[in-house]
Each structure stands twice: as structure tokens, then as C-alpha cells.
Design goal:
This protein is an alpha+beta fold and 743 residues long. It has twelve helices and 44 strands.
Length: 743
């Protein structure tokens, strides 16, 4: 019988070795898996986290394992490239840091074995991801096992998959379940037994045959219907020899139909089922991507609390356990490979191998409905013939391996809606940040209306949108201030615009959680992208979290915003309350301020005198917060950039004249401003064709987007691309701008 032996405990680890050891290195550090060597330096900023080859070593005694015919080493995640050595002999190499892969070690497995795994997260032009706005944590960051099987066994070599493929076919009230297996060394005296169980483990269908393909029937099939009814069946497949089970595999599966309509969005089992949700990265503070099952479970429970119906699992294959949770919690999933930011013909083969692994390993999950071909891949442009060719290859590959699901891409915002490349997949989505990276929040809805009108037959979604927020606060939020208040305002606006357009087949907030991006140096806390609705340690739900909960969740609640913003200078404080109840009453020190009816978002004005306890009441629900009148603005609420070279009070802003707090686009509209831009301001921008943060290159579209940034905000971001400005540079520029009248 198959036995899986876990190897997570006690590995010797080092960054210093330059070759494979010939004996167990007792002077290396001892670690347990999952493990990453970038848990700290991959999140602290500076873009200086260690990227190179590290070694893991472990002594394995064969007698500790079950006696059997075949032994496979199973590695569930090693980022990014990996080599396996047994007693100094090189057995295997694998490129791709996010999928499961296995090595047959049977012929080289001795009584005592020194297993060494070399893992390398160095930049590599043949392996994706190559350039992106997140940390590429190195390490053996998921489980490592030895799988013990008999000579005849269900295949362990098919792209790291389970050796089992389940395809439900829905026929009115019934279903035909098409089951395919792969068996190594199947003998004439062996048979395969297929059994289907319902959610209560009752046997409902069975067949014994010597065929590796079969069809079983389910009468009055119970459909998997997202979070409303995530019903799962289970198939057990057993390999029999003379009536005795010598190997078995099993998988949960769900029966459902879906389609994506250009006008009506996502249709699940013949009914409209709006996909409104989030994207997720697989890391967290202090442990990088080396997550434990309880971390995955907590993430899912937070996403479920929000009320999401969908998750985009970006930008790579996630842990199998999390896909299982998506099935069980009823999340509709977008799964993708890390083909991101920049197309490189040298890595085309790697996109194909990673896609094969993604589909083979995840085919049975009913939660997955689309395979993502790429993300923002046209940063250098969308006309490259090899980029087009490779997308067509990937698209055809997906449809060859999976006849049921659709393909999609996440398109970078500046890409033309007339681009031939967006017509390759079945459906598409755009990543838009109007209201954060230039433009205004109000531009989002009209942009989608324009796309829908001009490309009526292409289902369109929004695969990324968001803005950053930390523990900064203001009563007058503006784009780029990194306050919790601006993030809340931004998401209120996007909820109103995106959720009211049912033709948008899916929306995915970027991001559910703050995540590691070691190259970032903005917002006052370097090394992270702070667009999350929840902090990276999962300890604080930002106000924007509750904005979505108000709209999406059926769990009754009421929430007062800006709880961390206590000291306020204004005489009348604006107070926002989120709730999914129809009516909210707000009390100040026990006195009713107002009772209001609204949908989701409730706005109040409260006299700000001394210390005031606010209480929001919605039926039997209550929430409290405090505000306190002060004479001067509390500077602890104002953003302070790390390594900042200017303090806010050093910037002079004469009324009616420009300053470095104004947008580049507005400055450029004046003759004097444009002339000035061609001089000193141009020093701040990377040259055309030069790479900027996240993998973009400067081009006309990027220049247009940067017009939405203030000069000061841009100066704080360009440090990520090696452009250094002094305090004197900025003060000199500000003085020149102070002499230019605004229109």
C-alpha cells in the first residue's frame, strides 16, 4: 500500500556552502520545513534580500521507511530552481518555484542516504517570475515527502499531479463522472476499482475494470454552487491484485456548470452569480512564504468573513491545501502561472512546463474556473510577435488539457483595448489603479463602459484595483497620502462603480493582505505593498475591509471607521459607519446625533468638543470609538517616509502657485511648467526604455500615468529605480514652482 513519509523535521541548512557535501554537515544551521531564508530580509526594504543558492541536507535511513518496491521524493514547493543529490549523485533538476514535483530515487536509494537539495532563487532569464512587484522568497517552503509505492502504482510522474483526472458532465438532473487514471506497470492480473462517495461518505457508485478510464453515473446530482452550497463528492480509485488493494488514490470533486457572458457576467449552474472578491499572495509577516496549514486556514476564514465569492490566486500556483479550502468554502478561483511583467523568449519553455503542472495538479478542483495565461506581460508593449505566439501556444495547451475551463489574462492598464493580444484568451480582465496611480477614482466605471461598448463580445473583468494604507490619518484624504481614510474612500467609490455593472464578470481587489515587496520604499514602511484590506500580520482589518463586508456579507455587523484616528482639530468631525443593516443610529456620549437609512455606507457629522465616545447602533448590534478635540494636528498621524529627505513643513505652498505637492500633469499644462519639466523635473524620471519599479519600462503610456503623481510623491518612489534626489534638489525645484501661477 502507498505510504507518504514526511521529511519536514530537522534539516541542516546553509547559505555559505559552494558545493554539495559528501557527509552530513553538522556545523550548518538546523531548520524545520517549511522554510525560507528570506523571512526577514525579503520584507524590510532596500531590494537587497539574499538571492542565491542555499543547501538543505538530511540523513535518511531506508529501514525507517516501509519496505516496498519504489520510492519517490516529493517536493511541494522549492523556489525557484532546484537540484536533488543523493549521496553526491545528481538525480534531478526542476525550474519553477510554486508547483509539486517528484523524483524517482528507487535505484539510488541505499540503506543510509545523504539527501541534499540545492535551492536557488537567483535572477534567471529562463525561469519565471523574473521581474515583478513582490519578493521571490527562496527556500523549501512547503512539505517534502517520500512516497512509498509498489511496482504497480498510480502514476507519480505526470507533471506532479495526483494521477487522477475527474470530469463531471451534467445532464439535466443527473451526472456522468468521467474518470481517468495513469498506472505504472499495470499487469494482466490487476484491476482498478472506482468508487464514488457522497459528502456523508455513503457509497453511491462503483465499478471494477482493467481499464484506466471509466464513467460512473450519479442520479439526482447535488451541484457545487459556490459559497451558497459547496457540495463535494469523493472518488476513491484502488489498484487491485488478486483482490488485494496494492495502491489507492482519491480526490474530492464537485459537479457544476458555468459560463461567462459578456452582458450578464458569471453564470453558475444556469444562475447569475456575481464574482466579487480579492487577490491573494501566499506570504505573511515574519515567515515569508513558509506558511503552515493554520495560516492558510486563517486567510480563508478572513476572506470568507469579507463575503467574497471569488479569489484570484496570484501570481503563481498556491499550496494544494488552499485550493482544497477554496473547494470547501465555495470560492470561485482564478489560477495562474507566474508569466508576469516582461516577456522573454528564453523562458517560453518554462511557461509551458509551469502551465502543464498547474493544470495537471489542480484539474479536479471545482473551485477553479479560469486558467490565467499571464499578468501585465505587455509592460514593454503588446506587439512582440513572440509574445503573441507564446500566448497562443499557452491558450491552446490549456484547452487541450482541459476541455471545460476557460482562459484569461490580467492586462496592464495602459494596454490598448484594440490590442490583438487581448483577443487570444476566452475572457480578459484589466488591472486598473485610477485614483491611486494617476487619474481619478471616478474614471474606473466609465472606462469599463467604453470597453464594453467597443468590445461587446469580450467578457471584461477587473483583475486588480486598490490603493495603499498604513496607520496614517486625516480628515481631508487625498490621493497618495497613504491614509486609512483615503483607502476607505477609494474602495467606497470602486464598490459603487464596479459592483453596479453586472457585465463585469469578476472583480478582484488588490490585495486581500499586505505582502512582501522588498524593492518598495513608500508609505513609511519599506519592503511591503500596503494595498491589503488586512495587514501583513493579519492582526488589523483596515476600514476598507468592512466596506466590502457591508456590501458582500450576510453576517450582521456595524463598524465605525477611523478608530485609530482619535485626536482631531476640526470643530465638526465627519464620521463614517459601515453596516449591512438598513438603518444605523449614531450616539455621541449617549446622545443621539442622527438615525439614517442607507445601503452599506452611513455618513454623520458630530460636534467635536472635548472627548467624545461614539456609539453606532444597528438593531441589537453596537460598535464604539472615541474622538478627542485638539488645537493642533497630531503629527503622529501624518505619513513619515523612511529615509525621507524633506519634512512636510519645509515645503512652501503660496496660494495660487504650484509646489512639489502638485501633480506633474497639472504643471505640464502651463508653458513655464512644461519648460521647467524639461529641465530639473526630467532628472527625476527614468529615461525612455529604462526599467522602473515592478518591471515597467518608461514609455508614452507610463509617462501619461505618471502625470497623475505629485512631484513629491514621485520623488519618494523613484528611489526604487536608483534615481537619487537631494533635499536641496527638491527645495530648489519647489522654489521654482512657487513662481508659476496655476491656471
Amino acid at each position: 500500500m502507498r505510504t507518504v513519509y514526511n521529511l519536514n523535521a530537522k534539516w541542516a541548512f546553509t547559505k555559505q556552502a559552494d558545493k554539495v557535501p559528501d557527509k552530513m554537515p553538522m556545523d550548518w544551521a538546523w531548520v524545520n520545513l517549511p522554510h525560507t531564508w528570506n523571512a526577514t530580509d525579503g520584507q524590510d526594504g532596500g531590494n537587497d534580500y539574499y538571492r542565491g543558492t542555499c543547501y538543505y541536507a538530511k540523513q535518511i535511513i531506508k529501514a525507517d521507511l516501509p519496505q516496498t518496491d519504489c520510492y519517490y521524493l516529493e517536493i511541494k514547493g522549492a523556489n525557484s530552481s532546484c537540484d536533488v543529490f543523493l549521496d553526491g549523485k545528481h538525480l534531478a533538476h526542476h525550474d519553477g518555484g510554486y508547483s509539486t514535483w517528484r523524483v524517482d530515487i528507487t535505484n539510488d536509494f541505499n540503506n543510509e542516504n545523504l539527501l541534499v537539495i540545492a535551492v536557488d532563487n537567483s535572477p534567471n532569464e529562463k525561469v519565471y517570475p523574473q521581474v515583478a512587484d513582490f519578493t521571490f522568497y527562496g527556500g523549501l517552503y512547503r512539505d517534502v515527502n517520500i512516497v512509498c509505492v509498489s511496482k504497480s502504482h498510480f502514476c507519480l510522474d505526470y507533471y506532479g499531479g495526483p494521477g487522477l483526472k475527474v470530469t463531471p458532465e451534467i445532464l439535466e438532473n443527473d451526472a456522468k463522472i468521467h474518470i481517468e487514471t495513469w498506472v505504472n506497470s499495470l499487469d494482466n492480473n490487476q484491476e482498478i476499482r472506482y468508487t464514488i462517495y457522497d459528502s456523508k461518505n455513503n457509497e453511491i457508485a462503483k465499478r471494477e475494470t482493467n481499464e484506466t478510464k471509466t464513467v460512473l453515473d450519479i442520479e439526482n446530482v447535488h451541484l457545487w454552487h459556490g459559497r451558497k452550497d459547496p457540495y463535494l463528492y469523493r472518488v476513491l480509485v484502488e489498484l487491485l491484485e488478486n483482490g488485494e488493494v496494492i495502491d489507492n488514490i482519491s480526490s474530492n470533486f464537485g459537479c457544476r456548470t458555468f459560463r461567462i457572458d459578456p452582458d450578464n457576467g458569471f453564470i453558475l449552474n444556469g444562475k447569475e452569480y456575481p464574482l466579487r472578491g480579492v487577490s491573494r499572495h501566499q506570504d505573511r509577516l515574519g515567515c515569508g512564504n513558509a506558511l503552515l496549514p493554520e495560516h492558510h486556514k486563517e486567510d480563508m476564514e478572513l476572506i470568507y468573513e469579507l463575503g467574497c465569492t471569488t479569489i484570484r490566486l496570484a501570481h503563481y500556483q498556491h499550496d494544494q491545501y488552499f485550493y482544497d479550502l477554496c473547494d470547501e468554502y465555495g470560492m470561485v478561483v482564478w489560477a495562474e502561472i507566474p508569466y508576469i511583467s516582461q516577456h522573454n523568449p528564453l523562458a517560453n519553455d518554462n511557461t509551458i512546463s509551469q502551465m502543464k503542472e498547474l493544470i495537471a495538479q489542480n484539474y479536479n478542483h471545482p473551485s477553479i474556473v479560469v486558467w490565467g495565461l499571464s499578468n501585465e506581460i505587455s509592460m514593454k508593449g503588446d506587439k512582440d510577435p513572440d509574445l503573441i505566439r507564446n500566448h497562443n501556444v499557452l491558450n491552446e495547451l490549456c484547452h487541450e488539457m482541459d476541455k471545460i475551463r476557460l482562459t484569461t489574462i490580467a492586462v496592464v492598464s495602459p494596454c490598448s483595448i484594440d490590442s490583438p493580444y487581448i483577443k487570444i484568451p476566452d475572457v480578459i480582465s484589466y488591472n486598473h489603479y485610477f485614483g491611486w496611480y494617476g487619474g481619478e477614482a471616478s474614471m474606473n466605471g466609465p472606462w469599463f463602459d467604453n470597453f464594453h461598448a467597443k468590445n461587446h463580445n469580450i467578457p471584461i473583468g477587473c483583475s486588480e484595483y486598490g490603493c495603499e494604507a498604513l496607520n496614517w490619518h486625516t480628515s481631508q484624504p487625498v490621493q497618495g497620502d497613504y491614509t486609512e481614510e483615503y483607502q476607505a474612500y477609494y474602495h467606497e467609490e470602486l464598490i459603487k462603480q464596479l459592483f453596479s455593472r453586472k457585465y463585469i464578470w469578476a472583480t478582484h481587489v488588490w490585495n486581500m493582505f499586505d505582502f512582501g515587496a522588498d524593492a518598495r520604499s513608500e508609505g513609511g514602511e519599506n519592503g511591503q505593498n500596503h494595498k491589503g484590506l488586512v495587514t501583513m500580520d493579519r492582526k488589523y482589518k483596515k476600514d476598507s475591509f468592512y466596506a466590502y463586508k457591508a456590501y458582500l456579507s450576510d453576517e450582521p455587523f456595524v463598524h465605525i471607521c477611523s478608530k485609530r484616528y482619535i485626536n482631531r482639530v476640526e470643530d465638526v468631525a465627519k464620521v463614517t459607519v459601515y453596516s449591512n443593516q438598513p438603518e444605523v443610529e449614531l450616539f455621541a456620549n449617549g446622545v443621539s446625533i442622527a438615525k439614517k437609512e442607507a445601503k452599506h455606507f452611513f455618513y454623520f457629522e458630530v460636534p467635536n468638543i472635548g472627548k467624545t465616545t461614539l456609539t453606532a447602533v444597528a438593531g441589537s448590534l453596537k460598535d464604539e470609538s472615541t474622538i478627542n478635540k485638539v488645537e493642533e494636528f497630531d503629527e503622529s498621524y501624518r505619513m513619515k517616509e523612511k529615509n525621507a529627505i524633506l519634512n512636510w513643513f519645509e515645503i512652501t505652498m503660496p496660494e495660487g502657485y504650484f509646489s512639489i505637492n502638485d501633480k506633474i500633469g497639472d504643471i505640464m499644462k502651463t508653458v513655464r511648467g512644461k519648460l521647467l519639466f524639461m529641465g530639473l523635473i526630467a532628472k527625476m524620471l527614468p529615461k525612455k526604455g529604462k526599467q522602473v519599479a515592478g518591471g515597467f519600462e518608461m514609455n508614452d503610456s507610463m509617462m501619461k500615468m505618471l502625470g497623475g503623481f505629485t512631484v513629491l510623491r514621485l520623488s519618494g518612489m523613484i528611489g526604487m529605480v536608483g534615481v537619487k534626489l537631494t533635499k536641496e534638489d527638491l527645495l530648489s525645484l519647489n522654489a521654482k514652482l512657487n513662481k508659476i501661477k496655476k491656471k
